[in-house]
Structure formats: C-alpha cells, structure tokens
Amino acid sequence: MINKAQYSFLIKQKAKELGFDFCGISEAGFLEEEAPRLENWLKANHQGKMQYMENHFDKRLDPRLLVDDAKSVVSLLFNYYPSQRLPEGVNDLKLSKYAYGTDYHFVVKEKLKAFLEYIQEEIGEVGGRVFVDSAPVMDKAWAKKGGLGWIGKNSNLINKKQGSFFFIAELILDLPLEPDGPVKDYCGTCTRCVEACPTDAIIEPYVVDGSKCISYYTIELKEAIPVEVQNKFENWFFGCDICQDVCPWNRFSKPHQEPQFNLHPDLANFTKNDWEEITEEVFQTIFRKSPLKRTKYVGLKRNIEFLK
C-alpha cells in the first residue's frame, strides 16, 4: 500500500535539506486552464523570435508526455535574492540579480539529481525526470497548482512569504503523492509592475508580450535591437528586474544562502567604464560559468553599445 502522505512528507523534508525554500505537489495531468492561454499568446506572436516556445505544444501542457505514467509534479522554489547588490543608480549599468553568480542550471540541476537519487533510495523504484528551465515544462503553472504562490500581473510567480526572486524547478515522478491546493491571487488592485515597465511589455495585467521585454532584447534576441526601443532600457544590459523590484511583495525577499549565487568578486567593483571596455579575455575569465555566457561576448558588447 502506497502511503502518499508519508512519501509527500519525506519529499518535502528532503527539499528543505537540499536548500529549496518551498516545495509543493500537484497531480500530473493536462493543464486545461493554460491550454487556451498559451495558444492565444503564441497566435499573438508574443514569443517574438523565441521559436522554441512554439515547439512541443502538447508536452508543455501534459507532463505525462515527458515521463511515462507520470503521477505527480513536485515543484520547487530556490531563492536567488542577493545580500550584496550591484549599484543601480541613474548612471550605473544594470545586471539582473539572477546573473550575479554561477549559472543556476548547474547549481540547481545538481541538487535535483541528488533529490531523485534520494527518492529512489528511500522509496524504491520510482521513475522520473528533473527539470530546471530546460525542457517544455510550464513551471509557473505547476508551481501555482502546487500552492507555491500565484502568478502576478507581471506573469511571475509570487510567493506571499518571500516575493518572486526564485528559480523554479520540478521533479516529474511516476509516484502518486498527496497534492497541495493552489493559493489565491493577492495582487489586488495594484498595477505597479504594469506602470513601471519602460517598454510596455505588460500589455495588460497578467499578459506579457515577451517580444517587448528588456530581458528578451538583451538575452534572447540574437539580431540588432530595434531602434524604436532606444533610451527605454534604463541602463539594463542583461535581463531586467524592474517589474520585480517595484512589486510590494518583494519587500519580504530574504537573502539566499547559496554561496554559488553570490556576486562574483570581480564584479563588485566593476564601473560603467569597466563594462564598456570589457575585453573578450576578461569576459571569458569572469563569466565562464555565468548566465552571461548566453549572450556571448558579441551580444554583451551589442547590449552595452545600445545603451550609449
């Protein structure tokens, strides 16, 4: 007899031990609510040049197509809010907080592998896969279903206790577990994120046109940044945190406890001039394991030049 409650408790305890801040469980099944939303979003071309968003439509909506006989989705939040922040004054070049340290794909994936191994050792033959923003999994939808927060007007998952500066990861398992229910939406009448977005990417509450987001322009877009958004980036050259920084729920953000996410020591004293004059050699040395590798040196230079 499978003891769902006991296994669920065991899994949540292990999540805490591995450094995950929150863990929620949902029953694996088709995401009915998300299907029409995703379809409309893609039809409106809000994905821009992110062609990968158009692929695997069915798999995005049903984890049972990713893991045979999937029964449960274990959603996990891993905090990346820094204790030491880069200066974000009017003249400073700004870097998204998630990119301060080592690329989260490396850090969180290691923890997930250890997690799955633990489950297999403790519980027995459990089939499953681990995901951290690396496959067609609608992580925010699953985190919401698992009661880890609600999806805010800026389309980020917001947790009532600690805001939104989290990486989201999943274990999709063929093990039946005790599901958690969703929580309510606490955005209320607040529209700070909508009003603060300098490129008007939040076209209406809860709908973000991905192709207008500063993060899209500075990370995803491989070609020249359109001239019409010149002078609208408020000095963000890699990613953007504006809609999170203005969110009242992020006053509850707490500094993370993961040394690998700490600000790279060489970055602490980087000036605007250092960024503007960065050489490929320095880039390769400092950002060897950083999310900034995604733009490559050429992309970083393009972004910094665009801000001049």
TrEMBL record:
Cofactor(s) the protein requires to work: [4Fe-4S] cluster; cob(II)alamin
Sequence positions that bind cob(II)alamin: 60, 133, 154, 157, 168, 215, 240-241
UniProt keyword list: 4Fe-4S, Cobalamin, Cobalt, Cytoplasm, Iron, Iron-sulfur, Metal-binding, Oxidoreductase, Queuosine biosynthesis, tRNA processing
Note on cofactor: Binds 2 [4Fe-4S] clusters per monomer.
The protein's annotated pathway: tRNA modification; tRNA-queuosine biosynthesis
Active site location: 133 (proton donor)
One annotated GO biological process: tRNA queuosine(34) biosynthetic process
Principal subcellular localisation of the protein: cytoplasm
Chain sites annotated for binding [4Fe-4S] cluster 2: 197, 213, 240, 243
Matches recorded under InterPro entries: 4Fe4S_Fe-S-bd, 4Fe4S_Fe_S_CS, QueG, QueG_DUF1730
Subcellular location: Cytoplasm
Amino acids binding tRNA: 222
GO molecular function: 4 iron, 4 sulfur cluster binding; cobalamin binding; epoxyqueuosine reductase activity; metal ion binding
EC number(s) recorded for this UniProt protein: 1.17.99.6
Domain 4Fe-4S ferredoxin-type: 175-206
GO CC list: cytoplasm
Catalytic activity, reaction form: epoxyqueuosine(34) in tRNA + AH2 = queuosine(34) in tRNA + A + H2O
Residues that bind [4Fe-4S] cluster 1: 187, 190, 193, 247
A Pfam family hit: Fer4_16
Record keyword Protein biosynthesis present: no
Xref: HAMAP family: QueG
Function: Catalyzes the conversion of epoxyqueuosine (oQ) to queuosine (Q), which is a hypermodified base found in the wobble positions of tRNA(Asp), tRNA(Asn), tRNA(His) and tRNA(Tyr).
Assembly behavior: Monomer.
PANTHER family: EPOXYQUEUOSINE REDUCTASE
Protein known as: Epoxyqueuosine reductase
